[in-house]
Amino acid sequence: MHQRSRLQPIRLGFEEHRQLLRWSRSPRRVGRALALRARIILHCRHGRSNRQVAQRLGMPEQTVCKWRQRFVAAGVLGLLDHPRSGAPRSISDSLVETVLAKTLHEPPPDAERWSSRRLATEVGISQQAVLRIWRAFEL
Hints:
This protein is mainly alpha-helical. It has 2 domains: 14-79; 93-136. The protein contains 8 helices and no strands. It is elongated, with a radius of gyration of 19 Å.
């Protein structure tokens, strides 16, 4: 007889719940992948099985299982992308934050929005770096 494995229960604190809701409702700002992971956990907390959540969201059951396990192990931080192999980043988190803040909240003095060239010159990085940051955050 096949024995069913017990699912790890999902219990959310107030702040975790708020963070997941925020992420799930703003895929343009945080990225579609992170928004989907947040929705997975929000569905899992209702006691649904991986299969039920997968069917409800139209995705493979293995995907739901992966993100449930990561959430149980590390909370909301477990839903973030892990660093990948390759050359180390040459742009600091604070510089990425600067690019995002200027893009989203500080329009250039004499234009409606930043061009990648102009923003690159403003913050002292390459145009390609600005474009990679914009792409990573789906801007």
